Amino acid sequence: MGHKKLIKFQAIDTYSNVLQYPENMQGNWNTFFKNENPITLELACGKGEYSVGLGREHKDHNYIGVDIKGNRIYRGAKTALTENLTNVAFLRINIGQITNYFAPGEVDAMWIVFSDPFLKKPKNRLTHARFLHAYQQVLKPGARINLKTDSIELYEFTLETIAEQGCTIHDNIADIYGKGKATGPLAIQTFYEKMHLEDGRTIYYICFSLPETEIVLTGRFDKRKVEEGVEASDH
Q: Does the pLDDT value for residue 135 go beyond 80?
């Protein structure tokens, strides 16, 4: 491990707003935040720009950035502490095991912002049915999932998946900047988004909610195998 990474890992070990593989958190997040406010997750949060950005604007909501990479979480966690954003926290876990950390209906919304599109491994995409199945276990009925990406492959894959699963699409914008839709939460820019915009890439956005019926899993991702933890790792 590089010296800079080691320093970041040592730092987050001391941060009160970072939880690393915590135990007994299901159903207890509002106790952690000391309020009953709604909870929004930023999955594969990286530096946590969305968790921090949303937390600044909406003090009556709680935000949790989720990522496996502790050295990435460091930046957002440090910013939240510096700005005294008590409604922003970070959770270091494998996203495929999210049901171990949240109780049914404990989560009010999700953001997936510039996650790895896994061009060669679609099963690892965070909008694959196996992940939607896990999200369904922790989201409130009708809760919205927001995807923001520069990957046409992930965008089209997500549209195909949510159509197959009978999800409800609330918003679908194929070019948020070209159509002047980069306002409100969509105006928050991550480190990677700024780079992509400089390269002239198109930014896509989809907002959808999961069906009332159970997400359909087949083959190696069937319900039994998911519950046993098979193929549970993300990036």
A: yes
Q: Please give the angle made by the CA atoms of 154, 191 and 46, to the nearest 5 degrees.
A: 70
Q: What is the pLDDT of residue 10?
A: 81
232 falls within a domain: no
- Mean pLDDT calculated for residue range 76-86: 97
Range of the domain at 134: 3-227
Please list, residue by residue across 142-177, b when 16 or more beta carbons sit within 10 angstroms of its beta carbon and e when fewer do. Answer: ebbbbbbbbbeebbebbbebbeebebeeeeebeebe
Name the phi and psi angles at 169, rounded to 5.
-90, 125
pLDDT of amino acid 2: 67
- Residue of 59, 71, 58, 55 lying closest to 18 (CA atoms): 71
Instruction: Answer yes or no: is 233 within a domain.
Output: no
**CATH code of the domain covering residue 96:** 3.40.50.150
pLDDT band at 149 (very low <50, low <70, confident <90, very high): very high
Domain count, the chain: 1
Query: Does residue 231 surpass a pLDDT of 50?
Result: no
Residue 200 lies in a domain: yes
Please say if the pLDDT value at position 233 is more than 50: no
Does the residue 62 lie in any domain?
Answer: yes
User: Catalytic amino acids?
Assistant: 116
Coil vs helix vs strand at 125: coil
Given a contact cutoff of 8 angstroms between Cβ atoms, the answer to whether 127 and 157 are in contact is: yes
The closest alpha carbon to 73, from 33, 111, 20, 127, belongs to: 20
